[in-house]
Amino acid sequence: MKTLLSARDIGKSYGNRVGCENVSFDLHAGEVLAVVGESGSGKTTLLRCLSGHLQSSSGEVTYAMRDGRTVNLASLSEAERRLLMRTDWGFVHQDAREGLRMGVSGGANVGERLMAVGARHYGNIRAVSEDWLARVEISKDRMDDSPWAYSGGMRQRLQIARNLVTSPRLIFMDEPTGGLDVSVQARLLDLIRGLVRKFNLAAIVVTHDLAVARLLSSRMMVMQQGRVIETGLTDQVLEDPQAPYTQLLVSSVLQV
Amino acid sequence: MSTVLKIEALQKSFTLHQQGGVVIPVFDGLNAEVAAGEAVAITGPSGRGKSSLLKLIYGSYRASSGRILVRSSEGWANVVAAEPHNVLDLRRTTIGYVTQFLRVIPRVPAEIIVAEPLLERGVDEAEALGRARQLLAKLNIPERLWHLSPMTFSGGEQQRVNIARGFAAQFPILLLDEPTASLDAENRGRVMDLIEEAKAAGSAVIAVFHDENERHKVCARDIALH
Amino acid sequence: MNAPVYNFAYLNEQTKRMIRRAILKAVAIPGYQVPFASREMPMPYGWGTGGVQVTAAILTPDDTLKVIDQGADDTTNAVSIRKFFVKTSGVATTEKTEDATIIQTRHRIPETPLTAGQILVLQVPIPEPLRFLEPRETETRKMHALEEYGVMHVKLYEDIARYGQIATTYAYPAKVADRYVFDPSPIPKFDNPKLDNSPALQLFGAGREKRIYAVPPFTKVKSLDFEDHPFEVQTWDQPCSICGAEGSFLDEIVTDDKGGRMFVCSDTDFCAKQQDAKL
Questions:
Q1: Between A and B, how many residue pairs show a Cβ–Cβ distance under 8 A?
Q2: Rounded CA gap, B30 and B49, in Å?
Q3: Digit-coded pLDDT (tens) for A1-48
Q4: CB-based contact (8 Å) between C153 and chain A?
Q5: How far apart are CA C62 and CA C51, in angstroms?
Q6: Is residue C243 among the annotated active site residues?
């Protein structure tokens, strides 16, 4: 199976402070990699470096583009990178307000990526938008409402629809269930699992919640103070943790 | 008879850093071979050794040393040293595993849980659900429960869903951890039927059975752990 | 006490050069907003300082200047600005569109078709068409540079979703020379077609926001729309009450407090000409 994304020695430092360092891994189509750690572990910094939101201090990321080329992301022009982030990639923010256009309706939010790549037929855009909202269980009669009128869970689902409308192959998620009620979390996680399987999505999910990691991911990377402490299959890291920190983390959770 | 599983000099121990780094040995120098269509029982004293071996074969546990060679359509792979994505491939195509307890996920209906191994192989959803329902019916799970999440099922019902999931897709290697525990006589019989069907279809079965009679009924020989 | 002596058209020559350089850049890149060092003018921001600076920079003693506000030559703003230029440059002025070499306008394009050699100077409040959806200047500049205009159609989509049709009736965004999306200033969308392929040079000045942009003569200007919701101009179901013209932009004038109204041409010069023609 061809590698989709390859990270080598990714590091980000702020002067003397280390955000993350020496992070290397390969990601394949259909794989969900959870990056877990406590606050300050560097997991969000890593995610932002990988997704192009932050410039890393060292290391490189290569990606297999849709046209078959494997490119070093640093070599892409800004236009190419921005296009990539709008079509083949998705980013689900912890706070949906960062990932949505709050000033326009739910339907417009989903249609935006289509319009950005040249869709010019209102009726068609609306139909595709409606379809995706249905997939994330947002009913048609809420489509013209502003996201301000949506609940937290609905906003997260809207974020997902907005990202998936261009059939991306890789999604980055930053604490996608953070701050949501438990039942809402369950619904969202179920949705994500289904979409990952249905569309063979690859994803990198940052979370501090091991239960979320267990549910969503097939592989896991544990970070502490900017470094990767342990990495492997999710069930293996959780059931047979090797590193002291991982054992501490796993034993601290109520049930995993 | 072709060998599909080879265990060579397998050693496993746990190091509990939370307990001052104490080392708990599980087993050492384990060797075994299993062929297609064979059923083998893992025996030994009560403790974590038997389930541990199953987990090692599946890749849920990390071996301290040794090799676990598995034959897939791509050739031989060593689970101990394989890249994570290769182990994931093996789990999808080659190694099936019925755990001791169902891992329950909220909201996911029982029939989807059972159908998942087929869905992951790309089987059409309708077909996968059809097979799932067949198995659920065979294991006496009433139809009204099929679209519900097993969160509220009894222990026995949950275990039967778990078993159905394990047998939904055909696996060249099938790992079973106490498959008949918490089942009544009738359902135990059904499970034994499923195991025999799998054997007949060419699966190598490695199982942990609490009950000696069942063990002898299904498995021709043992892998003994001391 | 001596009366103050102004440099021709108020601005000093160095400032005029700076503005002309900006204008040249704007003409070279149609629709692109060129930043310029907007000066303090003797009228506050929001009163046409951008347009005044552009006119001041291009004015020569041989020019004939027309100034209109909402199509009318005789409103306060038009009168003030015209008097300003007379005082500071002594140029000839006119109300007749066809006699003017420079026409400074707020919020309308004259009905009389312009000819080659004429310059239209439009006053612009907010030059950035993306501003309403993207408040960051750093981001909008990037969007223009990378031609990322999807968000403009989001606005139009939103209109249709909310009102059943594109609700924007003025400052209607258009694409210039198939490249830059621009805000044609708060002219009614009725006037957008006049921007396209005009023989005149069209200059846009925003004083408060410090931007100048241009549409050179005979440049393509296409208003944004959807395939199934094409661009349409306003129509009225009655002619001008004064001159009888059909197909000009009409202002609604309230005549009494009993709901009486009449519709008259907003372009006063055009209306007068129609009346003369009827006589």
A1: 54
A2: 11
A3: 679 999 999 999 998 899 999 999 999 999 999 999 988 899 999 999
A4: yes
A5: 19
A6: yes
Known catalytic residue at C164: no
Kindly indicate the confidence band of residue A255, based on its pLDDT and cuts at 50, 70 and 90: low
Q: Give which of C190, C181, C175, C166 is closest to C70, Cα–Cα.
A: C190
Å from A34 to nearest chain B CA?
13
The whole-chain average pLDDT of chain C stands at: 95
Active site annotation includes C50:
no
Report residue A71 as tokens: 């490119």
Q: What residues does C15 pair with on adjacent strands?
A: none
What is the C-alpha to C-alpha distance for residues C34 and C148, in angstroms, rounded to an integer?
18
Mean pLDDT by 10 residues, chain B (226 residues): 91 92 91 94 84 95 95 93 94 93 87 94 93 95 94 92 95 94 90 94 93 90 85
| A243 contacts in chain B (CB < 8 Å) | 17
Cβ–Cβ contacts within 10 Å for residue C22, how many? 25
CA angle C168, C174, C177 (to 5 degrees): 175
CA distances from residue A204 to A64, A195, A207 in whole angstroms, order as listed:
16, 14, 10
B42 neighbors B223 (Cβ within 8 angstroms): yes
> Within an 8 Å CB–CB cutoff, is residue B107 touching chain A?
yes
DSSP C199: S
CA distance B173 to B34: 9
Question: Is B107–A186 a contact, with Cβ atoms under 8 angstroms apart?
Answer: yes
Angstrom distance (rounded) from CA A201 to CA A168: 8
**Could you please report the per-residue DSSP string of C53-79?**
HHHHHH--TT-EEEEEETTBSSSHHHH
* Cα A234 from Cα A242, distance rounded (Å): 13
pTM of the model: 0.87
Place of tokens 């195509």: B93
Q: Does C222 touch chain A (CB under 8 A)?
A: no
Count CA within 13 A, CB hemisphere, residue C54: 32
Residue B48 pLDDT: 61
Which has the closest alpha carbon to B8: B31, B41, B39, B37? Answer: B31
Residue A58's nearest CA partner among A20, A84, A16, A6 is: A20
Question: How far is it, in rounded angstroms, from Cα B172 to Cα B204?
Answer: 6
For residue A58, which phi and psi values (nearest 5 degrees)?
-155, 165
Nearest to B18 among A1, A187, A248 (CB): A248
ipTM associated with this complex: 0.90
> A129: closest CA among A112, A141, A116, A153?
A112
Catalytic one of C31, C51, C71, C205: C31
